[in-house]
Amino acid sequence: MSFELIKDILLATVPLLVIFPSLFAFTTWMERKALARIQNRIGPNKTGIPCTRIGLFGLGQPAADGIKMIFKEDIVPRGADKLFHLLAPILALIPAMLILCFLPLEFPWGKFISGKVQAFMLDSAVIFFFAISGLATLAIFMAGWASRNKYSLLGGMRAVAQMVSYEIPLVLSAVIVVMMVGSLNAKEIAGAQTGFNWFVFSPWGLAAFIVFFIAALAETNRSPFDLPEAESEIIAGYFTEYSGFKFALFFLGEYIAMFAISGLAVTLFLGAGDGPFLAAAPWLSVVWFIAKIFGLIAVMIWLRGTLPRLRVDQLMAFAWKFLLPLSIVNILLAGLSHHVIDAYPGPVAKVGAWAVSLVLLYMMAWGLNNISRSTAKPREYLYAE
Amino acid sequence: MTQEITFWVLAVIAVLGALLAVRRRNLIHGVFALMIFFAALAGLFLLLLAEFIAAVQILVYIGAVGILLLFAIMLTERVTGDDARDITSRGSFWGWAAALAVLVFLLLPTIQGADLPQTVQPINPSVKALGFKLMNPYVVTLEVLALLLTAALVGAVAAAQGGEKKKEDAGDA
Fold first, then answer.
1. A–B: how many Cβ contacts below 8 A?
2. How many separate domains does chain A show?
3. Which letter does DSSP use for residue A331 in this model?
4. Chain A hits for B82, Cβ within 8 Å
């Protein structure tokens, strides 16, 4: 019994522990290259195979970064809370790694070695995902508080305020998919979208996906919502006082959280492992899943290279006055259309419901955009003339 | 066997977290110790196959109540958490005595006298069943609760607005 248990645990967790950190290394390289091209630079291109002149497009850069991070001096400020300063980066990584287990990834070796291949098969996987991903906020607050640095604390406070606000549209847009499937189980949600029945291909699903993606950007502190680490305002925010491997852990945690939340977006809206040629080769579903995650990550990098950072008041106004009403109306429309299509089978009801929801959602977004624009007055200086 | 070990590990963590939460002088440390307690409790719920309750425990108690406590502490002057004041007060003896009395005369006899069933009925720990229960027999309760929360939210907004006006007046004066 114990051997079987250990085998199951290893089969379910080791792939996640191997695949996602290596994807992280590749993503840092991809991000640096893409940002460099957007800014008309070349980006890392020297680091390849050591002791040779072979550059390999700079693919050795993540390894070089990792070695540098490990050997860097670990500095703890004198006034810092030593214990919390140590715990914060660890706490930042744990929830990010944990929520990966809720993704409906089916690795193909389940056939060859009998055993379970998914870590948690919980009925309420989606709720667990949101519950545990919220814990990353605590780590950021802990880091900001333990550093005993004004800028760190400001960054931590900003992170908490931002994440608390954006969690609401994030969860409300996921509610639509849960309503449609009638289940919180990630695998059933994935199963309901096979054969290109993706939820993104419906007006309410598309709106929910866009809201979800924007809120996910804010939840993972990605640009243009990277206020907690705004260099021009608060140095580096909550990880100002971190160096060496602790900094690397924050970095890793942030990227793993990006993978996880993109994975949830893929599960909820983009059909999970669904894609062409699945009948011929079922193992392709993992490939499709990770390819879709990478597609979302690429959009995130693109946005980072394109959009300027928001102001705090714009950030809050956008969450509370635009995303929140839009997602509530979206839930209403989705429920109504679902019942109309159920009650009157046939193309007429479907086309009608789609057209009405599309028009209403567009009008709603347009109107909210007009009334929710932040009306900040010119700045009044408190301590300066 | 595995379940028993898990139970005892979680129970020890929960008790230690609760003790730390009330004994730490540093308020922020106390809040985080309280969160450890909540997390251990969520683990115990999982052990009882109540996965939805466990998720809600994490979502509400750690994600909402804990963050709210941190925010509240941030607004006080003890934000740094350095507090060397002694936490034991003069009346601590009576507190210990009352707690011990409750344990010995109330809790222990109840646990000893409880007629626990030796065989447990198999249950279907499904979220779906919970959802049907909430939407069928308890739907009125749910709606009333939602209305209450909305009222509380509107009240909070009203209170916050009033406070802001007063602050502006104070600024002018």
1. 59
2. 2
3. H
4. none
Confidence at residue A69, expressed as pLDDT on a 0 to 100 scale = 86
Structural domain ending residue among the three candidates A315, A345, A378: A315
Best of A138, A158, A168, A175 to disrupt the B interface (most B CBs within 10 Å) is A138
Residue A154 lies in a domain: yes
Contacts for A171 with CB less than 8 Å, ≥ 6 apart: A130
∠ CA(A233), CA(A237), CA(A242), 5° rounding?
135
ipTM value = 0.79
A349 contacts A341 by C-beta, under 8 angstroms: yes
**Binning pLDDT at 50, 70 and 90, where does residue B173 land?**
very low
Could you list the mean pLDDT of each consecutive 10-residue stretch along chain A, which spans 385 residues?
A: 72 81 88 90 79 75 85 85 88 88 74 59 82 86 86 86 87 89 82 82 87 91 82 81 86 90 90 78 80 91 88 83 88 86 80 81 82 70 73
Domain assignment of residue A52, given as a range: 13-64
Q: Are residues A153 and A283 in the same domain?
A: yes
DSSP string computed for A337-381: HHHHHHHS-SHHHHHHHHHHHHHHHHHHHHHHHHH-S--PPPP--
For residues A13 and A101, the answer to whether their CB atoms sit within 8 Å is yes
Of B58, B70, B128, the CB nearest to A131: B58
Q: Which residues touch B77 (CB under 8 Å, ≥6 apart)?
A: none
Annotation: CATH topology of B1-81: Four Helix Bundle (Hemerythrin (Met), subunit A) (1.20.120)
d(CA A43, CA A150): 33
| CB contact (8 A) between residue A131 and residue B2 | no
Measured distance between the N- and C-terminal CA atoms of chain A, rounded to whole angstroms: 75
Do residues A46 and A145 share a domain?
Answer: no
Three-state DSSP at B26 gives coil
B59–A130 C-beta distance less than 8 A = yes
Residue of B nearest to A5 (CA): B2
Q: Mean pLDDT, to the nearest integer, of B65-76? A: 81
> How many CA atoms are closer than 13 Å to the CA of B68, on its beta-carbon side?
7
Torsion angles phi and psi, residue A102, rounded to 5 = -90, -10
B52 to A160: CB separation less than 8 angstroms, yes or no: no
Per-residue pLDDT band for B9 (boundaries 50, 70, 90) equals: very high
Q: Indicate whether A308 belongs to any domain.
A: yes
Confidence of residue B47 (pLDDT cuts 50, 70, 90): confident
Cβ A41 vs Cβ A70: under 8 Å: no
Do residues A176 and A208 touch, judged by C-beta distance below 8 A?
yes
Name the average pLDDT for chain B. Answer: 80
Task: Give the residue on A whose Cα is nearest the Cα of B132.
Answer: A182
Same-domain status, A214 and A237: yes
Q: Report residue A12 as tokens.
A: 């379910």
d(CA A109, CA A45): 36
Structure tokens that stand for A137 in this block: 């906020």
On whether residue A279 sits in a domain, the answer given is: yes
Q: How confident is the model at residue B26 (pLDDT cuts 50, 70, 90)?
A: confident
Domain boundary among A259, A294, A315: A315
